[in-house]
């Protein structure tokens, strides 16, 4: 019996070896097929990705928290001179912020008063219809903006696809397409949603294209992420940049853009609210204009997912920046 | 420690002995989780070695019976899913390394440590080059290669450390005394 089994094993082993080798090529072919399918349909594999992300999210959060704690510990080891100069700088900042907060309070009060007097302004009739439908669906008041605080648990901003994973998902009513901001400006938008986590496509990813207004020049344009970096003399380190799309500009339009111009969302796509800060023009030539994002993607930790129902929320977001994630409705 | 585990395993009918084959995979999942989490390194991520891949490479080179091709496929799939990369990208890279490792096995098994490190460096380069090439093909433009090169260098430099640690794990779970315990257990 044992000899017969050994004979079978001897006969089958070359076949098994050949099959194993063949299996590698077959699986590589399957993987190439998956890649091609993913190229044609970006949603391919989305469920698998979010399933794994949901499973790993608490675990990733643990690592991220430990790393944040380590950074806090190293932050404490500072020289007296560094602390003194930082203290002085912070005092100056507090004075400036105090002054700004007073202005912001006035603006919010004025804005609320005007909103009570005037009907909410919509960009188009379709926008208004969409907004009402959304409000009915969610049971919220028209114009109410819902915000959710989230923490970045996985950072892929320096990998091939520039994205981050946050610790809120479908369970917290996060949906695809929602805007994600922090106190520095626009971070990106929700691309994939799992039960307890969501993947955010950063504005620096080449797949991200946003309609913007270049404020001083009053130009409507589109900016797109790039995979490139440029040396920034202010911070003395390489910085990501976005590129102003040429296709929507006339050659003379570029001449009106200047370095330092503020770039904000125009809201024309109905995805992002208008007025969110994207960054500042950092480089202009006859051929192109580059925008340096206002958000420091290397230090991304807590963000705000904004469920925008289609109305202008500029004042609220100014408040977000000024008073640290507090909102007019008191939500966090 | 080992005696406690052995007794525990004996009591629960040899389950621990059967699931120890999953230890390399568990190590990989933990290390990939560490790699993917928000460590606040920013651009410094380029200098962070890919410990998860280095661990798989050790088991592919030294103990291939524990890394059959379906497991390698799942490892690639898991990597793509967790890192949010296009599905298939890491699978291709892992399977390519699997193929190179299995083709070179007769030669590498007789090499000393330095020789194995040299072969591992080649495979690390092949892994990152594969990812970079297929990603460039995926987006239809050349992705900047510098980060991949830096990570490949960092992974190759730290490979002896990963090798040593994984070797300790193997010695603990499958070492000579563990084999003796297997014998005792089987007889019992």
Account of the 3D structure:
The complex is a heterodimer of chains A (about 325) and B (about 190). Chain A has a 6-stranded antiparallel β-barrel with strand order 1-2-5-4-3-12. In chain A, strands 6-7-8-11-10-9 form a 6-stranded antiparallel barrel. In chain A, α3 packs antiparallel against α6. Chain A has a domain of about 70 residues. Chain A has about 325 residues and is of the alpha+beta class. Chain A is built from 6 helices and 12 strands. The termini of chain A are far apart. Chain B has about 190 residues and is mostly helical. Chain B has one domain. In chain B, about 75% of the residues lie in helices and about 0% in strands. Chain B contains 9 helices and no strands. In chain B, α3 packs antiparallel against α4. Chain B is globular. Chain B starts with a helix and ends with a helix. The chains are: A alpha+beta (about 325), B mainly alpha (about 190). At the A-B interface, α1, α2, β1 and β2 of A face α3, α5, α6 and α7 of B.
């Amino acid at each position: 019996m044992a000899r017969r089994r050994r004979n079978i094993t001897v006969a089958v082993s070359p076949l098994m070896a050949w099959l194993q080798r063949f299996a590698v090529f077959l699986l590589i072919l399957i993987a190439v097929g998956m890649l091609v399918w993913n190229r044609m349909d970006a949603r391919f594999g989305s469920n698998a990705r979010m399933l794994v992300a949901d499973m790993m999210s608490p675990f990733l959060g643990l690592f991220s928290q430990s790393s944040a704690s380590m950074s806090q510990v190293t932050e404490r080891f500072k020289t007296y001179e560094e602390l003194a100069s930082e203290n002085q700088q912070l005092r100056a900042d507090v004075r400036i912020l105090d002054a700004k907060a007073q202005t912001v309070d006035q603006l919010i009060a004025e804005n609320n008063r005007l909103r009570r007097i005037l009907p909410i302004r919509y960009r188009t009739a379709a926008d208004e219809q969409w907004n009402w439908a959304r409000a009915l669906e969610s049971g919220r008041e028209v114009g109410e903006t819902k915000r959710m605080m989230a923490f970045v648990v996985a950072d892929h901003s320096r990998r091939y696809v520039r994205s981050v994973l946050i610790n809120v998902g479908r369970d917290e009513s996060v949906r695809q397409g929602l805007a994600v901001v922090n106190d520095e400006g626009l971070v990106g938008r929700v691309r994939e949603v799992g039960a307890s986590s969501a993947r955010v496509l950063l504005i620096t990813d080449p797949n991200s294209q946003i309609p913007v207004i270049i404020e001083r020049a009053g130009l409507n344009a589109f900016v797109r992420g790039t995979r490139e970096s440029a040396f920034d003399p202010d911070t003395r380190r390489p910085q990501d940049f976005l590129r102003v799309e040429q296709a929507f500009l006339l050659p003379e339009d570029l001449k009106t853009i200047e370095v330092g111009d503020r770039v904000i969302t125009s809201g024309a796509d109905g995805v992002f609210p208008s007025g969110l800060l994207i960054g500042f023009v950092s480089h202009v030539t006859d051929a192109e204009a580059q925008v340096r994002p206002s958000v420091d993607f290397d230090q991304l930790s807590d963000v705000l997912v904004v469920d925008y129902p289609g109305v202008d929320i500029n004042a609220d977001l100014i408040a977000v920046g000024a008073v640290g994630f507090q909102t007019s409705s008191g939500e966090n | 420690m080992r005696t406690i585990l052995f007794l525990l395993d004996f009591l629960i009918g040899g389950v621990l002995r059967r699931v120890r084959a999953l230890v390399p995979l568990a190590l990989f999942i933990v290390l990939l989780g560490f790699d993917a989490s928000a460590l606040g390194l920013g651009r410094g991520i380029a200098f962070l070695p890919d410990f998860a891949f280095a661990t798989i490479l050790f088991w592919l080179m030294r103990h291939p019976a524990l890394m059959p091709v379906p497991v390698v496929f799942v490892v690639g799939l898991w990597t793509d899913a967790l890192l949010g990369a296009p599905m298939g990208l890491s699978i291709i890279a892992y399977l390519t390394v699997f193929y190179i490792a299995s083709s070179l096995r007769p030669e590498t098994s007789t090499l000393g440590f330095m020789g194995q490190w040299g072969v591992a460096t080649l495979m690390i380069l092949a892994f990152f080059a594969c990812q970079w090439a297929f990603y460039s093909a995926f987006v239809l433009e050349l992705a900047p290669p510098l980060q991949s090169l830096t990570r490949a260098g960092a992974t190759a430099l730290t490979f002896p450390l990963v090798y040593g640690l994984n070797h300790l794990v193997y010695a603990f779970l499958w070492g000579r005394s563990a084999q003796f315990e297997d014998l005792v257990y089987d007889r019992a």
